[in-house]
Amino acid sequence: MSPHIAAITYCKQTFKIILIVILIFVNNLFVYGAEKFREPITPVIPFNNLNKDKVSLGKKLFHDPKLSSDGTVSCAKCHNLETNGVDLLPVSFGINGEKGNRNSPTIINAALQYRFFWDGRAKTAEEQITDPIENPIEMGSSWQHILLYLGSNNEYISSFNQVYGVNPDRNLVIDAIAEFQKSLISYNSPFDQYLKGDENAISPEAKEGYALFKSYGCSQCHQGMNVGGNMFEKIGVIRPYYGKDNPAKLTDLGRYNLTGNKEDMYEFRVPSLRLVVKTPPYFHDGSISTLNEAIQLMGKHQLGRDIKDDHVNKIIQFLATLEGQLESGK
Questions:
Q1: Can 138 be counted among the known catalytic residues?
Q2: pTM recorded for the entire structure
Q3: What is the predicted pLDDT for the residue at 20?
Q4: SS percent in the chain: helix, strand, coil, step 5
Q5: Which domains does the chain have, with CATH numbers?
Q6: Which one of 98, 126, 138, 208 is the catalytic residue?
Q7: Separation between Cα atoms, residue 172 and residue 108, nearest integer Å
Q8: What's the pLDDT score for residue 34?
């Protein structure tokens, strides 16, 4: 890439980040008042008026491995609620031990995102559900298989009729699982309480960590209610992340695989940091095992800055305050 093109690309990326931050600030002004105008992060607001019967049915479907083609893989296999909505593996394994090529992000708070999957190919929670079901290396299933199974199960027939008034069909299965996913919201974290005015909700070290998180520039991409998940960004904005030192990673071109647009090469959805301290390993390929290393790499490649060890530790103390309470799922 020529220096001229690289400069243009960098300016476009910078403008996009600035625009997102401005929109977040304006939203804060209206939602939380002028005193929170400067905060890039907002407290989590759970979904209201969820249908409890749909949530219960969706939970059962989410945990049912018989929806897969060989009866061994459920949604919960890769998104284990006992381990904060992940499987703690670099990449997940589907039917017949098939190995995936990307890390499975947590399902908790996923419904707060505006796009799904690392490349953002699904626009809604409902649209996201079909992909792993039909993916040949994940669940390898089909709606014909699923509806045949559900239609021969008296318990499911009874549940669908109780909740929807009809027998199972594709749209209703999707609706129930999506309703369950919307119930998986981690809220009222210590940091949320701090944002709402409780100065004692987090430690002085965590407050320092938050100040560093903002001053280094982390909050340019990790902001909003979900502390991420609401924009795309190229990995290696300032310093290339891919290249001769990482030849094995060149196969994943990010959103470029979806759009074919060269500007989208190595661009991924910015992950949420709400549960980041509990959901290693990190990055789209699960190649980074510790949060310390992930922060150092992000500082180097995204911000062009070396983050001191004591600053990393304080930032992690801040990140630990983002975990809230989860009432559904477990």
A1: yes
A2: 0.85
A3: 53
A4: 50, 5, 45
A5: 3-45+187-320 (1.10.760.10), 52-182 (1.10.760.10)
A6: 138
A7: 22
A8: 40
